[in-house]
Every structure is written in C-alpha cells, then in structure tokens.
C-alpha cells in the first residue's frame, strides 16, 4: 500500500520537474511557484515515508501517510489546455 503512494508521489515529482525543465521560459511566476511547491511537498512526503520505514511503520502511521498521498494528489498541478 505504501509502495503505491511512493510510486504516485515519484510520478508527481517527475511530472513537475519535467515541466519545469522543458517549459521554464514560458511559465509564469505563479505556475513556477506552484510546481516548485509541489516538488517540495512530494519530496517531503517521500522523506517522511522512508524515515517511517527505517523506524518501523505502525498501522496508524501508514494510514496517515496514505491520507497524505490523497491530499497530495488533490494538490497536484494540472496541465492547462495546450501545455501538454
């Protein structure tokens, strides 16, 4: 279950960093800020999940991380029309 969350979060990181890399000159400041914030949010979630795995992950913590994945998915930047 946690592996699915990690995969989804990594996919979001890859999407955001690819957009930043390929579209940087055409992105507005607000769009850049949203993408950079998404990168930070997803990287922080991965760090927390991996730290939990190192320490041993109780079921309630795993459930909380799963909720964070859902929240992060809701906050994931969406491509606007014409941007890919």
Outline the structure in words.
With 84 residues, the chain is mainly alpha-helical. It has one domain (2-75). Helix content is 79%, strand content 0%. The protein contains three helices and no strands. The longest helix is centred in the middle third of the chain and has 27 residues, at 29-55. The chain starts with a helix and ends in a 9-residue tail after the last helix. Residues 80-84 have low confidence and may be disordered.
In terms of topology, how is this protein built?
Elements: H1 2-23, H2 29-55, H3 59-75
Helix pairs in contact: 1-2, 1-3, 2-3
Brief account:
The protein has 84 residues and is mainly α. Helices cover 79% and strands 0% of the residues.
Please state the average pLDDT score.
80
Largest sheet: none
From the N-terminal CA to the C-terminal CA, the straight-line distance is 30 Å
Question: What percentage of the residues does DSSP assign to strands (E)?
Answer: under 5%
Low-confidence stretches: 80-84
SS class: mainly alpha
The DSSP helix count reads: 3
Shape: elongated
Q: Which series of helices and strands comes N to C?
A: HHH
Quaternary structure: single chain
Helix content: over 70%
Radius of gyration from CA coordinates: 14 Å
Total strands: the figure is 0
What is the count of distinct domains? 1
């Amino acid at each position: 279950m946690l592996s699915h969350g990690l995969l989804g979060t990594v996919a979001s990181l890859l999407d955001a960093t690819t957009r930043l890399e390929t579209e940087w000159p055409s992105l507005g400041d607000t769009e850049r800020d949203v993408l950079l914030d998404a990168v930070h949010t997803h990287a922080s979630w991965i760090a927390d999940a991996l730290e939990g795995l190192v320490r041993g992950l109780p079921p309630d913590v795993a459930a909380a991380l799963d909720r964070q994945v859902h929240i992060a998915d809701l906050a994931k930047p969406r491509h606007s029309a014409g941007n890919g």
